[in-house]
Amino acid sequence: MELNDKIVIIGVTGYIGAWVAKKLTDMGYTQIVGTYRNEAKARQLQSMLPNVNFYKANLGETENWHEVLNGAKWVFNQGSAYNPNDRTFKDRGRTKEKGIRMLLQMAVDTGTVKKIVHTSAESTIAYANENADKTIFTEDDWTNEDREGLFDLHMVSKTMEEKAAWSFIHSPENTTNISLTTIHPTHVMGPSFVPWHNDMIYAMLHGDRAMADSQLYGVDVRDAAAMNIALMKSAAADGKRHFASAFKSTYSTLLDLIKKNFTDEQIEAVLGHVARIIPGADAADVLGPCHATSYYQDMVPRMLNRVVYKTNHPEAYAYEYTEPNTTVIQAMEKMLQDKNKG
């Protein structure tokens, strides 16, 4: 990657995408193009990163993509195609398949795009496993999108999308031999670069509800962005899938950390009513009669802290990760700051 190469960030207003744009700007790259859907968010981000060129463009639609991709060499894909009329997650998956294939074909048609780093998710790797004894997962594993009873059906569409991307890359349609690398973030946390994101801390812990304690793997959003860039610059990463994971924790550990560092008023301002966490072993006992279900086989080993993510590519982790206490505290501080400004 040369500093004057044209770089495209699809989904630049997103949680990771905005940080990718910020980091590339700080590194001195001068031809950064970002795509967006929301005009107001794009205007605000452009005021923060005036050197980035913004285009409204949706995956799955043709408008503006010629201008976006013309002359580009490197593409970071943080987006997915979306159709509000999709009724099922299989429908959503088919929409995402169409969108990613269209993007890859347009990239081939430019004759200039060399590589795409596509942000997928851990949910395309480590779920819907039918072997109840399997607790170690690597990037060689795939979520079975056809298994019934998945606790989070977003896994279906994301897995279908990623499989479609790899199918295109390995097919004769890839006439210019574009390289693809995928990154699979675990729970993404940390301060948002822009004020409209609440990170996974909010998603996991807010709400007046009961939830089972469980292990979780996490990564700071700034590290996820840095890893996107590191993978783009590494020829050794071409053709590979990569976990983006920095630490292993539990929901109760994160909540205890928050309670030690913030007042009740601050916590309520960010999270509202905080979820009540049930010990994982107790929840696992209650779920015993459901042992044959996908939900049980996916979640109970996590409640009992037995699942291990083991990367096949430790060389991709070439920089120092932000430690979890810093990630959580700075995320809360940023969400409080954004609340006060709002």
From TrEMBL:
It comes from the Bacteria. Pfam families: Epimerase. Residues 7-234 form the NAD-dependent epimerase/dehydratase domain. The keyword Transferase does not apply. GO terms for molecular function: oxidoreductase activity, acting on the CH-OH group of donors, NAD or NADP as acceptor. Belongs to the NAD(P)-dependent epimerase/dehydratase family. Dihydroflavonol-4-reductase subfamily. This is NAD-dependent epimerase/dehydratase family protein. It comes from Paenibacillus agri.
